[in-house]
Amino acid sequence: MIIKKEKIRNFSIIAHIDHGKSTLADRLLEKTNLKGSNKSIERVLDSLSLEQEKGITIKLNAVQLYYPLESPEPYIFNLIDTPGHVDFMYEVSRSLAACEGVILLVDATKGIQAQTLAYYEIAKSLNLKVLPVINKIDLPHAQLDTTKNQLTELLDCQENDICLISAKTGLNVDLLLEKIISDIPPPLEKSELTRLKINDLTAQIHLKRRELGKLIAETKNKFSKAESYLLERLLDEKPNSEKLNELQVALSDRKAETEIILNKKRELRDLEKHLEQLQAIQLEAKVEVN
């Protein structure tokens, strides 16, 4: 059977631990009737002995799902699993680089948490389509309004863009499957997609370097003049509390500006590291082809 590219959707589920990623994956498995068995998707995806022992995912794994089942030409969903532990961020990058979109899954009782943000930043840097999904809406202590506000602020989206589900009961999971079809684009050729992502990151890094260089130059110029002026005043006149306070404020401002520069340097290093990872993925693909 010839598979049409426009019928393929490659996606991943990103979530903080215990926000329901595995339960949602199981529900998708159930809806697409993979292998006609009640085996959980964790067993399909988790193959390494350490993964099974620790209950975490480390390496990139994928499972192919078909939806809707009754269609003669169903959509093919390639659910690409991501590591569930922050120690394996390189593997997360590799997994997400194989996707065109992600389901950003958030627990309605807990809201957005650190691990979700870390994964989201990777997805954003790869220009992936993000489907915001709030899980566990059936629980009595769900904080829907708060969680919706967090997502609309983070993603700059509207409330009606957010899919409200219960992975446990299956509520609205069919709606999510339809959104995967409508919102996540079909794949480009992977070599072309990786090349575009590398070009985009290279442009971002170039811009950040220019901004950082300009900021450092402006900061040096600004504070060298200010400090020279204040030191001259201290040398020319007998220091008093007012002059010493002026110098203290200037030094405090310099500390704040230095912290801004350090933060921008960290952002630049993160981008450069991600670029290196993408270039490694591109090299791996070339080696496999050859």
UniProtKB/TrEMBL annotation:
Gene3D superfamilies to which the protein is assigned, alphabetical: P-loop containing nucleotide triphosphate hydrolases (3.40.50.300)
Keyword field: Coiled coil
Coiled coil (UniProt feature): 261-288
Keyword NAD attributed: no
Gene Ontology molecular function, alphabetical: GTP binding; GTPase activity; ribosome binding
Biological processes, Gene Ontology terms: positive regulation of translation
NCBIfam families referenced in this protein's UniProt entry, alphabetically: small_GTP
PANTHER family: TRANSLATION FACTOR GUF1 HOMOLOG, CHLOROPLASTIC, TRANSLATION FACTOR GUF1-RELATED
Name the record gives this protein: 9942_t:CDS:1
